[in-house]
Amino acid sequence: MRVLGIDPGLRLTGYGCVDWSPSARRPTLVEAGVVRLVTGRAELPSIADRLGTLDAEFGSLLAELKPEAVAIEGLFSHYKHPTTAVVMAHARGVLMLGARRAGLRIVELKPAEVKKAVVGHGNASKQQMQAAIQELFGLAEPPKPPDVADALAIAVCAAHRRVIEG
Questions:
Q1: Which of 55, 64, 147, 150 is catalytic?
Q2: What is the pLDDT of residues 80-137, one digit of tens each?
Q3: Are 3 and 157 in contact (CB under 8 A)?
Q4: Is 150 a residue of the active site?
Q5: Residue of 95, 105, 87, 86 lying closest to 52 (CA atoms)
Q6: Could you please report the per-residue DSSP string of 86-107?
Q7: Hey, is 7 helix, strand or coil?
Q8: CB 4, CB 13: distance < 8 Å
Q9: pLDDT reading at 24 higher than 90
């Protein structure tokens, strides 16, 4: 099963693609990276422009990687930053629509569920997530930026769930 994990954002959107079969002990890394929607410190493109870029880039990723499912971080909000959930919902909406248009299964995973599956507890730090993904895939260094590690963790969690549940 090929799963594309997505850590949505309006500046950076992390992605990680893995293959995993029921007979395999661990997933195989296919590709990982980020879609940069903002570069440098120049004036920020409008949200509409960033969403348009995200849609185009995501469509290209789907065509290139040909996943069977797309796993995306579930929406969450923090009491100190309530508008973050609203802003993040824009990116999630574009990504989910793109996956649906492509006829792909969409798996939504809460951040704490992913952290618990990969690190062992739901309050893992960015550094702990990066270290766990580095170890899982035998990488020479932790994935950077942290959005890449998060996206890979989302893909791994979703693929594992699908391999077990069938």
A1: 147
A2: 666 777 778 899 999 999 999 999 999 999 999 999 999 998 899 999 999 999 999 9
A3: no
A4: no
A5: 95
A6: HHHHHHHHHHHHHHHHTT-EEE
A7: strand
A8: no
A9: no
Orientation of helix 111-118 relative to helix 146-165, angle to 10°: 80
Could you confirm whether 113 is annotated as catalytic?
no
Backbone angles phi, psi at 71, to 5 degrees: -110, 130
Domain boundaries, the chain: 2-165
Total residues found in the chain within this entry? 166
Prediction pTM value: 0.92
* Distant-in-sequence, close-in-space partners of 54: CB < 8 Å, separation ≥ 6: 10, 13, 35, 37, 91, 94, 95
CATH fold of 2-165 reads Nucleotidyltransferase; domain 5 (3.30.420)
Encoding tokens for residue 31? Answer: 């590709």
Catalytic residue among 19, 73, 108, 141: 73
For 153, how many CA atoms within 13 A lie in the half-sphere containing its CB? 34
